Amino acid sequence: MIEHISASRSHHIADAQLKRGCRRARYKFNLLSLTRHQVVTSCRLLSVLDVGYARNGGPSVEISPISPRRPANVEPDVYEPAADLRRIGGVVRRQFKLAAMGAGLAALLALLFLYFVQPLYLSSVKILLDVNQNQLLASSQSSPTPQSATTAEDFVATQMAVIGSEVVAGRVARSLGLTYNPETERLSSQPASEKDTRLTTAPPAETTDPVDPAVVHALNRALSVFRVEKSMVIEIDVTDPDPALAEAMASAYGQAYLDDQLGARYESARNAATWLENRIVRLRNQSLEANAEVETFRKQNNLVATDGRLLSDQQLQQLNDRLSEARSNLTRATARETVFSNAVDTRNIDSILSQITSMSGITPDAPILSLRNDYLGANERYREVSARWGAENDQARAIRAEVDRLANQILGEAARLRDGLAGDVRVARSEVDAITNSVASTTSQFQADNSTLVQLRNLEQRATSYNALYLDYLTRYQEAVQQQTLSMTTGRQISNAQKANLPVFPRNKIVLALAVFLGAAFGAGAGVARELMDNSFRSGAAVERLGVPFLGYVARGSLGLDPSAKGRKIPAHGTVGMDGALEPVLAKTMIAVRMRRRDSCKVVGIVSLEPSAARSAITLLLARHEAARGRRVLLIDGDSAGHALTDLARAAFPPEAAFDAQQDQPTRRTAPLAEHLDFQATQDEPGGSLLTDLLSLDRLAAVRDRYDTVLVDLPPAEPISEASALAASFDAFVGVLEWGGTRTDHLRALLEANSNLRNRLAGAVVVVANPRRLKLYDREGARRLRDRAL
């Protein structure tokens, strides 16, 4: 057995050396990759090997204490989306009840709302604004149609306003006999005699009975008119608590709109026909008088006209046309003669030849055309010979002389052509002068008749306007007469009102679904807010995030304390007994303590952040755990204000055990509680702290010689407290954190303020955990806690 242990220890030492070698080689070893089970197993093995080997006289191995801080050479945590999903899933599981409560409460309120609210039923009709059937009446002033509107949108908006007017509402109220009840704020219909609602050539019967304004106001509240998308269809919706009344009002609105359109058209056509008839008689007489005046004036002044124009006027226009043409001919001849003369004067053969082709007076057998062809041929031969043999060649010189001779002949012919062009210019100028003299004489004759012509035109315009007005009014009169016998409106009903079976408000399914959704959302929001504000320790991961090793959970009630007892209050019947479910947590805690330092005696402080009876219970259980394994243990009650450990020890051990805390005066005698277990209570002295005196260097040296382990139940730790001040005197600390009670920021502030306590903190135990709610935060921890309880 010893050989096996020695071999295992040698193998472990080799592994430790290998790890140190890897660190020296700057290899990064991710300690976070080890599972919690591997860490615990390794710690237990180190503890067994060290204790067994030390008891057999072997040297102990120095193991550096675990620092709560992350080593500098360890890689940062790799982001894992699965971890975020797990955290989100945990929040959903924890706050599901709150979201369900919100959804249930919202559903209950929705049911109450649906029970007490008055349902509304909707009935609708659709009106098609048919503009094509009224094109015959498009030009009538008495019956405007959509073509006279600026746009189709304006016309539709106008008809929608007409439907919502008080006139149409009055027709509906009178047709249905509607009355308004102020108490119930509802409309009611009285039985009315049946009417023939078919369209006829006669106008709808008009009544002058006044309509209650309250009825009209109620109808306007129940009415909704809108355009169906971008079509020429108007939908009329009417809502009412009575589905039958809603159907009747929707039908009445559609018929009232059509009746109103027909009545307005008939009344407008009748008024227009009456006015037009009187106006036509006057226009006919005025038109006849104006035409007679025109004929009389023309006969008196001997004004002969054809096609409505005087002969002098027609002659003057013809002369002006001839004068414009002659001046154009003169301008063209002058320009042609000038350009051709410039070419001849400058001896520009190419320009002369190009202009000859456009002259209309040159015959095909003219000499200049043959000269042109000879010149172009000789010039082409000269370019070919000079390009091949050079310009100084004899043949090139001969050809060049021929070209020059032909050019001189062309210039001679061009001079004769120039004289011909100059003659054309003189002829054109003479023609312009002759026509100008004729225009002048004709103009003087026309001016003589100018005054009489102005008077004649005034008379003709007056007669023409009377004739046009007479014909226009006569046409409109005929149209107005036809409209009186035409039963046609600008719209027609394309759908009938139907009796609604289901209310349009409230929609039960939609209201319930919306209420459940909003309630669940509100509950989920409250749950998330509660989750964000919860800054206490709920899982071991929260402890490890602060760099503190997590040692395990202690369930509520497993310490033998009253669950209702909080703080420093210890119930009279509270007893702490050894529970098998706590054994793994106690063993793991002591393993973590031994890993901090390999001395023969260790002074361990049990610390919490608030007054806690669970801390004292954990201290007592650790002392009994160590004493049961044959180790000499000194248990010190360092909480002089609460004495919770003293009360628990008195209840856990037999009455014959001596407790110095029972004496009236403070004492420093140690009382044996059980085999290998001594107890010493600490009380405040008038001159100072007895705990400080007990943990002095001289006292610690004497204690280390007598005991293997010293467990001190410390008062609540704060950045400035007795536990923080004495941190350097301890070999290790064990933190006791209350599940859902201890705040994470308090522990973080304490660790940041006291480096001695941070470096000596072996780990933390989460106590008073609720097993049923723990599974919502740490399923694996809850499972192990449940397995230990079985």
UniProtKB/TrEMBL annotation:
Keywords, in A-Z order: Coiled coil, Membrane, Transmembrane, Transmembrane helix
Coiled-coil ranges per UniProt: 266-336
Endpoints of the signal sequence: none
Regions crossing the membrane: 96-117
InterPro entries (UniProt xref): Bact_polysacc_biosynth/exp (IPR050445), P-loop_NTPase (IPR027417)
Single annotated GO MF: protein tyrosine kinase activity
Highest taxon listed in the record's lineage: Bacteria
Span list, region Disordered: 183-211
GO CC terms: plasma membrane
KW Membrane (keyword) present: yes
Record-given protein name: Succinoglycan biosynthesis transport protein ExoP
